[in-house]
Amino acid sequence: MRLEELEIYRMPMDIAEEIWLIVIKWDYFCKKTVGDQLVRSVDSIAANVAEGFGRFHYRENIHFCYYARGSLLETRTWLTKANNRNLIKNKEYESLLSSLEITHKKLNGYIKSIGNKITSNK
Predict the structure, then answer these.
(1) Which of 103, 109, 105 is nearest to 41 (CA)?
(2) 95 CB neighbour count, 10 Å cutoff
(3) Alpha-helix residue ranges (DSSP H) falling in the chain
(4) Dihedral Cα 51, 18, 110, 36, nearest 10 deg
(5) Which one of 6, 17, 47, 92 has the largest count of C-beta atoms within 10 Å of its C-beta?
(6) Residue 85 DSSP SS3
(7) Strand, helix or coil for residue 122
């Protein structure tokens, strides 16, 4: 299987592009403060899934998936700050939150499936 075939990789890649298109329109101060953190955290989700996928051992893969999950929750926080500061439209905010929630559930399922591989290989 290739990394690009993993839904849990493709989903945060798409969310990151949506967020990028929103943040790129902000003024310098907003980009430098909230935007930078938001883009870094959302980019980190797929990056950590990719790094874990590239590791040889299942336990290492899970380790990086935990980082991805942390980045996902950080992204939610920065998205909420952006919404609270009127940098993002409510409709976009709700849509992105929904996408992140679905990704969160799928990421938990992916972590569980990797864990099942560990126990079945014993």
Answers:
(1) 103
(2) 13
(3) 7-23, 28-30, 36-53, 58-84, 90-120
(4) 50
(5) 47
(6) coil
(7) coil
Could you tell me the two tokens for 49? 């899934």
The predicted-structure confidence for 16-71, as pLDDT tens digits, reads as follows 999 999 999 999 999 999 999 999 999 999 999 999 999 989 999 999 999 999 99
> What is the total residue count of the chain?
122
What are the tokens at 115? 């864990």
Instruction: Extract the tokens encoding 22.
Output: 């929103």
pLDDT in the model for residue 1: 86
Assigned token pair, 6: 């993993």
- CA dihedral for 121, 103, 17, 79, sign (positive or negative): negative
For tokens 């329109």, the residue is 25
Range of the domain at 45: 3-120
CATH for 13:
1.20.1440.60
